[in-house]
Specification:
The complex is a heterotrimer. Chain A is mainly α. Chain A has helices at 5-22, 28-52, 82-101, 118-138, 142-151, 153-162, 171-208, 213-222, 229-246, 255-262, 265-290, 292-318, 323-343, 347-378, 389-392, 394-407, 414-429, 431-456, 472-490, 493-509, 518-522, and strands at 61-69, 74-80. Helix content of chain A is 74%, strand content 3%. In chain A, a hairpin with a 4-residue loop joins strand 1 and strand 2. In chain C, helix 1 runs antiparallel to helix 2 (27-52) and helix 2 (27-52) runs antiparallel to helix 3 (56-86). The longest helix of chain C is centred in the last third of the chain and has 31 residues, at 56-86. Chain C starts with a helix and ends in a 13-residue tail after the last helix. The chains are: A mainly alpha, B mainly alpha, C mainly alpha. Chains in contact: A-B, B-C. Chains A and B meet through helix 7, helix 12, helix 14, helix 17 and helix 18 of A and strand 1, helix 5, helix 6 and helix 23 of B. Chain C: Its EC number is 7.1.1.-.
Chain lengths: 523, 648, 99
Amino acid sequence: MSFPLLTATAALPALGAIATAAVPAARRTAAKWLALLVSVGTLVLAAIQLVRFEPGGARYQLTESHAWIKDFGVRYELGVDGIGVALIGLTALLIPFIIAAGWHDADPLETNSSRWRPTQGFFALILAVEAMVVLSFEATDVFLFYILFEAMLIPMYFLIGGFGDRAHAQGDEAAATQRSYAAVKFLLYNLVGGLIMLAAVIGLYVVAGSFSLNEIAAARASGSLHMATNTERLLFLGFFFAFAVKAPLWPLHTWLPNAMGEATAPVAVLITAVVDKVGTFAMLRFCLQLFPEASKWATPVIVVLAVISIIYGALLAVGQRDIKRLVAYASISHFGFIIMGIFAMTSQGQSGATLYMVNHGISTAALMLVAGFLISRRGSRLISDYGGVQKVAPVLAGTFLIGGLATLSLPGLAPFVSEFLVLVGTFSRYPAAGIVATLGIVLAALYVLVLYQRTMTGPVKAEIQGMPDLKVRELLVVAPLIGLLIFLGVYPKPLTDIVNPSVRQTMSDVQKKDPNPVVEAAK
Amino acid sequence: MENLIALLIAAPLLGAAVLLCGGRRLDKAGHWLGTLLAGASFVIGAVLFVDMLGRSADHRTVTKHLFSWIPVEGFQANVGFQLDQLSMTFVLLITGVGTLIHIYSIGYMEHDENRRRFFGYLNLFLAAMLLLVLADNYLLLYVGWEGVGLASYLLIGFWQHKPSAATAAKKAFLVNRVGDMGLSIAIMVMFTTFGSFAFSTVLGETGGASSGRNTAIGLMLLLAACGKSAQVPLQSWLGDAMEGPTPVSALIHAATMVTAGVYLITRSGAIFNAVPDVQTVVVIVGAVTLLFGAIVGCAKDDIKKALAGSTMSQIGYMVLATGLGPIGYVFAIMHLVTHGFFKAGLFLGAGSVMHGMNDEVDMRKYGGLRKYMPVTFVTFGLGYLAIIGFPGLSGFFSKDKIIEAAFAKGGTEGWILGAVTLLGAAITAYYMTRVMVMTFFGEERWKHAKTASPDQPGVEPAAETHGAHDEPHPHESPKSMTIPMIVLAFGSVFAGGIFGIGDRFVKWLEPVTSFDHGNSPVAEWTVTAATIVCLLIGVGLAVAQYGRKPVPAVAPRGSLLTRAARRDLLQDDFNHVVLVRGGEHLTRSLVYLDHSLVDGVVNGTAASVGGLSGRLRKLQNGFARSYAVSMFGGAVVIIAATLLMRAV
Amino acid sequence: MNPVNYLYLAALLFTIGAAGVLIRRNAIVVFMCVELMLNACNLAFVCFSRLHGNLDGQIIAFFTMVVAAAEVVVGLAIIVSLFRSRHSASVDDASLMKL
């Protein structure tokens, strides 16, 4: 039997999490280095996956399959397609940066507290999330996926509820209250989604008699498994609801601003750039593949909701007074683009949506982490507390601007490629939705530039005077992300080559063809 | 040879990367590096130009496919370049004027601590602008299009610590984004219509598409052009953009970037030619902007804003010309090039005046400067003669041709357009004479006047004064600043003649844009004579008003029109009331609704569950006897139910 | 005598016991009432055993007795310790088991 690469990629951070948690209280720094080392090791394994993956080969590659719960036909079945392998790469790539950015986020307040343990816990929880997210991108068994989908809520709950920004406008007491509110809200929203999905998972088993994605898809394709229209629609809705909560889609979005606002910046990145991607990924993999007819049935409504998300998220971002909440609402807008691209059911839309997931992860990480550095310096999340930062910390302001420009999809940076693909893909099938969504690019410019103007430009505020510029550690976090944004904006071919074949297969799952250009059609 | 095209862009791009990432170490040499690379780009452009001249007119187009950019099923976006006569014209203008302005900036920005960053941005602009004109497809053009927008944003907001500059930069980017939305939709329609957005496919197969689709593409391209070229209704950003350093205003907001809209319409000529209705809209936009900009230019006391109004108006001429179709494309581009020379020269002259006057921009505090700044006076004067269309100078040849073309459109339309362009010429002569007289002639009003604080909007903090508020001591600018002005003055004088005499420019561009003489209802010499008469009327009025009487130091109240024109014909008030206020209300109410309605439903559910359980909790009173009663009651109910079921 | 009469007696005893548990506050009396209910059940079991002619009911009565004995041990211990700490044998005084 060959080396179980997929299991190893998830097992390494899982074991790393246990090891990190077990480091003695006094050896705090060792725990940080251990976590960083493990995350880099995972990145290496993810890179090996990318290399070993053959675009255009079998649909699911590097597969592993073992019996797990025999009585219910649950199997430990793994496999990656191009979309999965790209997202595993994104996850593994971002975690080292998240760890490095959060280096001091869980340090004890007093230096001599030798019994302080949350530091170890913080990094262990991040690695635990990574392990579960990676495994959920690999799972091809619906039940296994469901368990991971739910289980990752536990470490996320503790990360949001247990660790917050050091300084809070209303004092520590209020901070703790708001944090636990945000954490509980996050948990309840996602649990409700998960509960409905559980019902759908059981329903699927009753109808199909299997949890294996491959078996069900093959049975559906060959016609041996027939689902009644209503059954398929109900099951689809059950799955989609859970993913739409996680993604999040309007109007199920309100947990995200609270969670991202209260969590520390690296955890906020973990939420929006990594964990939420499981939702959109699952729409592509499970909704479209298991319930193609129901997906097509629901498309008009979903596209409308996605367009609302785009505009609504952007408008609310404009109205925010809190930097982190602004980024959160911007993310809601971007998730609208991703979902719109998936359900436009065109090659460009789906390729664009997949690229969007990767690019949004990188660009939000760049913007949010720099925002985190800014917030840790001044101890405030309110935009109005800043002004004139570029004069005292030009590198910080510059990286913040590049992160912002990526968020507003400036051509030449990676998000432009994906956003344009999504727009074109949507426009060719739903012109109205495409045009309304294009408004989003104007609004994106508005919230990014207003944020930059209010925080970075103008006369230097008294509290900002003497603010230090980016340190070497912080620069090392941001610079590679920016480099990647530029590289993927100019030369996204390596990524599209991996994604394209998988998109082709998804398109054939739903039996949709791209609309022909009018001129060619006329010929 | 075609490999040089990529190098043309790579040189300034490299400069931008090195200067922006290099840090403080490069502060000493940064400006030389930037200028050198801009110059290198110009030399490469010149080599390519000579090479192009060596080939026959039909074989001058060179294409170069670099790499596949976004390869996705059914969607092929390439990075490829197309260098034809139209692009070549722009390449030479951009790199030529660009290099001159780099040289000028060495002197102008000498005392600014961020000079290296400034040159980095300038190089970035050159690279983006070259990409814009060299791209062989609309998507790559879009990259350059937004790239110049970014450079413009960075340069307008170069003095970010001034709130007015930061606001102006943001405004410019936002208004441009509205235009970009048009370009983006145009590309989407192209893709669904032709399956491609390469120039060759789209422009070659225009005939195959329905007129509805062509109309959509044309209107959206026009929206894009309006944004970038500051045409009505997206013109409001250009005046504020004067917050940027003067070399920026010269390069970006006069000579090159703002003319990108004209390039876009000319490049997409095939589409516009196919839908005459859209052409009519283009002409209307051009004519309205022409008058709009000219009227605003008459009322401004800020020298740069007066010139900005003039830029808007001159681009209105160009857009109007492109709207005329094959009659006008060539002349639009010709006017664009000559305008590039004389307007850049005028801005540099204005910068030189400000440099010598402690950065004062108010023309009412100038006067009689010709004695103190002879070189600036002469070069500015030649630019002035060129822009008003003094016979023999550049502007005369290009503007006259546009006026002729407007008449040649034929019918009532032709007469109306001809009248508008003639009126525009008269107003141009009026406001430019006003600028000239107020600045260089008359009494020396700057004596005993304090200079404005550098924090004030419009004032440039680049001066050697470092914010001193003394009485200014006008002096001539250093060589690095005067030499580019002299070179541009040469261009302002001779370019028109070189292009116009013997129809050289027409023959040069005809293979790309095609050309049509049209049927002018009036003879050529009549138009020329009418133009000259208009010019004289304009100059005469201005001299009578500003040359004969002393200019008051504080602007008089003025008529309703003057007051409106000072406020840019109330465009900002409109934007403020409708867009800014409306938008603020919208976002604020949405934030409230998100909290109270969307979140409220969720929190309400949670609260009602909590309330219900709170009530149920009361049953747990802790008395064992009452628990026993409930057990007893439950047992009785179960037994009763069982018996009842038996009985039934 | 008709065995059914014993059932009536058992029901009567059970009802007296149940009423006592619900009404009385003294823990000892409540406890005795519980015993009364248990023994009423025992009587019913033995009676059913007689009626049906098999020994199942009588065996269960023995089980009940053993359980009742164990319960008396634990229950009295609780009551005694409660009395020691509170100087009262009222069941209503021990009402801490609420939120």
